[in-house]
Every structure is written in C-alpha cells, then in structure tokens.
Amino acid sequence: CNAILAQPEMSARGIIRKSGVQLICTTDDPIDDLSDHVKLAKENLPFKVYPAWRPDKVINIDRGGFVDYMNRLSRVSGIQCLNLESMIKALALRIDFFHAHGARLSDHALDAVPFGIPSTHIAGEAFRKALSGAPLTESEIQSYKTYVLMELARMYKAHGWAQQYHIGAMRNNNPLMFEKYGPDVGFDSIDDTCIAQNLSHLLAEQEREGVLPKTILYCLNPKDNYVIGTMLGNFQ
Predict the structure, then answer these.
(1) In this predicted model, what pLDDT tens digit does every residue of 35-74 receive, in sequence order?
(2) Cα–Cα distance between 162 and 217 in angstroms, integer?
(3) C-alpha dihedral (198, 201, 207, 211), degrees to nearest 10
(4) Does residue 146 sit in helix, strand or coil?
(5) Which range among 26-30, 143-147, 181-185, 192-196 shows the weakest confidence by mean pLDDT?
C-alpha cells in the first residue's frame, strides 16, 4: 500500500484526475477568505474547484462561541453586527464575495429541522439577548433560526444558488473527547428526531414568500428517506 501511495498518480490531485472528477465544492464558512480558491483559479486544472457556503455558526445561536463569531463576521465584512439587521447585511456582503469566487451552492447542517415564527421582532430580540449573554427561550431560538434561513433563502434565490439541507446528525457524543479536542472532530452519529412537520413548514414558508431556491435535501438517517422523497414532491 505504501509503495502504491508513493506513486505520483496517487497524490491528492492524481487521485482526482484518475477518478475522472470534473467538479469539487469545498465547505467554507462565511468568514473564510477563500485564498486557496484564488490560488487554484490561477492554475490550469483539468477539474473545477468552487467554494460552498456553510453558515452553520450563524444559524446556531444556541451554541457556544456565537458572540465571538459575530465579532469575527463584523471584522471580515466591515459591518458591525450589533443587531439582526446589520448581521443580515454582513451576510449579504459575504454572499456577494462568495458568488464572485464561483460559489453557487449553500450547505446547511440542520441537525434538527427548526421552525418558528419568522418574526423580525422575535428574532431581533433573540439576537440582542444572545449578544448580551442572556438565556434564550426555545421559541426565540426557533424564530431566529427560521428567520435567518428565510433571509438566506431569499439571497440564494436572488443569486441563482441552490441550497442544501443535510439533516439528522447528533454531534459531540463523547464528552471526554469533546473536552480534549473540541467540537466536530469525529464523535458524531445519526439522530432519530422527527423531521417531517418542521421541514414542511420551513419549505412552505419559503414557497409562500416566493424565496424557495433550488433545494437539495438529504438525511443521515435512512428512516427519513421516504419523508424527504415525498416532501420534495410537494414543491416541484
């Protein structure tokens, strides 16, 4: 195995060429500078490499590090994310930046599909409380997540992007490994929460507002494949 892997055609690019890959989309956070994409764009590669927009840290207002992330988004965008409105403007600028570098696809990890009243007032209050460190109610969390997903869908539709929702991960299950290494380093597994009602409500709200973009749905739990397959049929 080592002898084979040492051959030039078994490098990362060699394997890509050998496999006949035509297009690769990486996973990129809204605050990423996409510098590697700038470098790759200057090379004469036999395959294309584009960024895909993954704003999970924007959506997950109920997880640690949200305030720090908003500070970083403020620095990168040049817009102080002091309230919900300014944060949405910062995201719009970042989407324009990603679009200019070839992005045409978003990627959302909806571990559990959210749905709440997409109220500017409720979502804005949730954002204010999160920045101040105040605890959020479940209804505020759901309203915020739904509102931001709606606004992002609006931007995707305007830019001709597709949105991906990948659903059903249960993350950071091993507490000792989480304490040692932090989140998202391999101790995730399949969740079994119900997804049908909230997924229906979320897509229906986007359809009602005329902002439902091209959408790709997939789930880590095969029990939900029939739910997703029939749900897609509702919005063809």
Answers:
(1) 999 999 999 999 999 999 999 999 999 998 999 999 999 9
(2) 11
(3) -50
(4) helix
(5) 181-185
Beta-ladder partners of 164: 107, 216
The residues, any chain, with a CB within 8 Å of residue 123's CB and separated by 6 or more, are: 84, 140, 143, 144, 146, 147, 148
CA 172 to chain centre: 18
- One-letter identity of residue 111: D
Mean pLDDT of the chain: 96
Q: Report whether 189 contacts 217 (CB < 8 A).
A: no
- One-letter amino acid at 209 equals E
List, in sequence order, the alpha helices (H) in the chain: 2-5, 12-18, 35-41, 56-59, 66-77, 84-100, 120-132, 138-159, 175-181, 196-208, 225-233
Model confidence over 139-174: pLDDT tens digits?
Answer: 999 999 999 999 999 999 999 999 999 999 999 999
CA neighbor of 110 nearest in space, from 232, 221, 229, 236 = 221
pTM score = 0.93
Beta bridge partners of 189: 170
* Percentages of the chain per state (helix, strand, coil), in multiples of 5: 50, 15, 35
Nearest-5° angle of CA 4, CA 37, CA 182? 75
Q: How far is it, in rounded angstroms, from Cα 90 to Cα 87?
A: 5
Residue 185 pLDDT class (50, 70, 90 cuts): confident
Checking DSSP bridges between strand 214-219 and strand 189-190, what pairing results, if any?
Answer: unpaired
